[in-house]
Specification:
By secondary structure, the protein is mainly α. The chain is about 50% helix and about 0% strand.
Amino acid sequence: MRGVAVHQVLADYHRPDLLPGLVDAIDRNLGRRPVGEILKALDGDDERLPGLDDMLLTHLTGRAPATGPAEAAGPAEAAGRSEVG
């Protein structure tokens, strides 16, 4: 081939010193978050933050989300037995 080599044409665009700023801008614009933060939001915690499943059930049933393990599991599971078999 004839002409200018690709690495010479694109040499002005190679700026590794600007990469951290570019990554920060991408994270901000896309709303990217750490995986642990996303999983915590989906799962919730036992104390104060309801998980996505709790919020969906509340929305669909119109009932308040369960607050403790016995209430969340239901009477049969809370007593340690299964209703099946």
